[in-house]
Amino acid sequence: MPLTTLFARRPALIESTVCEPETLPESGETWQPEGVTIAQRYYNQAHAVVLVYTADDGTTGTYYAVACLGCHFASAEDERRTYNPRYSLTDAAKTANKHATACRALPRDIPARPDDATVREWLRSWASGARRRNKDVQLWLSDLDLIRLTIQRPNDWIEAALQQLAVDQPEILRTERSKYSDRIFYYARSLPEN
């Protein structure tokens, strides 16, 4: 018997089975939260999933964020850059891979999708927290990228909720339509002087 065949390793044949997406939700393998597009998945040392995702519609370029489903790591910007710190797909992949190789967090359950009233309250708190004394502060939907896996809502839903907030509580939020397009801008109102 030749030596090469004696020590050659061959994987055992595994019977093929088809898994429904619902059977493995805890692994993050098939999870596609509403409002984001998963571009890449990495596994950390304990098999928790590290996601590279985008919530951008691509009108001004597509930017990505990274989030670990094992620990609480989330990143949407490269702190080493001063101009355009948002991640491209390549940069986000490098960050996700670097985190996955160092992270030892155990896999956690996929976050449950919150109800609409809870998300509206989070958006109200976000707009209220952005208010400053001396000026209105422009709010961008991309500022929500780090919590997109928590709120699990598409841009259209978030924009409708913000427009309703501006109607219901104009002292907190105002909207302004662009002069050049149908785009709507959101501004957290300045705090009162007293």
What is the subunit organization of this protein?
Answer: single chain
Number of helices: 5
Secondary-structure content class:
alpha+beta
Helix residue percentage: 25-40%
Order of helices and strands: HEEEEHHEHHEE
Computed Rg: 22 Å
Mean pLDDT: 83
Helix and strand layout, with pairings?
Blueprint: H1 3-7, E1 37-43, E2 49-54, E3 65-68, E4 74-75, H2 89-102, H3 116-129, E5 137-139, H4 148-151, H5 155-168, E6 173-177, E7 184-188
Antiparallel strand pairs: 1-2, 2-3, 3-4, 5-7, 6-7
Q: What can you see in these coordinates?
A:
It is built from five helices and seven strands; from the N terminus they run αββββααβααββ. By secondary structure, the protein is α+β, with helices and mostly antiparallel strands. A hairpin with a 5-residue loop joins strand 1 (37-43) and strand 2. The chain is globular, with a radius of gyration of 22 Å.
Features:
single chain, 194 residues, alpha+beta, 4-stranded antiparallel beta sheet, 3-stranded antiparallel beta sheet, 5 helices, 26% helix, globular
Summarize the structure.
This protein has 194 residues and is α+β, with helices and mostly antiparallel strands.
